[in-house]
Amino acid sequence: MQGIFRMDFVIANQKKVNAMIKTTLKIDGMMCGMCESHMNDLIRKNFQVKKVTSSAKEGETVIISDNEIDIPWAKKEIKEIGYELVSYKSEPYEKKGFFHFGK
Ligand SMILES: [Cu+2]
Predict the structure, then answer these.
(1) Could you point out which of 20, 57, 76, 88 has its C-alpha 20 to 30 Å from the C-alpha of 14?
(2) What are phi and psi of 53, to 5 degrees?
């Protein structure tokens, strides 16, 4: 019986860990790899993010984080480094194929 209780606890805990937010920022003005790193650096410096990737080609920066991104803040900061946040979208992010018992 004890084993079952422990497993329940792990599942509940795992769910909490995996409940992250994916925020897609549409950015105007990124032209190359340098712009992509500028954007990534800006986000990493100011936010605790799990992952951030930028694509000049797609014109977007995708952020995976535990907490919501402060959009008005982001818009202002992005403008300061020379780009423009034109729109954004945020959705729940579940890490796929990741399930460990124990640890
Ligand atoms: Cu560039």
Answers:
(1) 88
(2) -135, 140
Please provide the average confidence, as pLDDT, over all residues in the chain: 85
Q: How remote is the CA of residue 30 from the centroid of ligand 1, in Å?
A: 6
Give the residue from 24, 28, 89 showing the smallest Cα distance to 56. 28
Contacts of 18 by beta carbon, 8 Å cutoff, 6+ apart: 94, 95, 98
Q: How far is the CA of 98 from the centre of ligand 1 (A)?
A: 35
36 CA to middle of ligand 1, Å?
Answer: 7
Q: Is 54 helix (H, G, I), strand (E, B) or coil?
A: strand
Specify whether the CB–CB gap between 84 and 27 falls below 8 A: yes
DSSP string, 19-48: -EEEEEEEEE---SHHHHHHHHHHHHHHS-
What mean pLDDT is predicted for residues 82-89? 98
Q: What is the pLDDT of residues 16-32, one digit of tens each?
A: 556 899 999 999 999 99
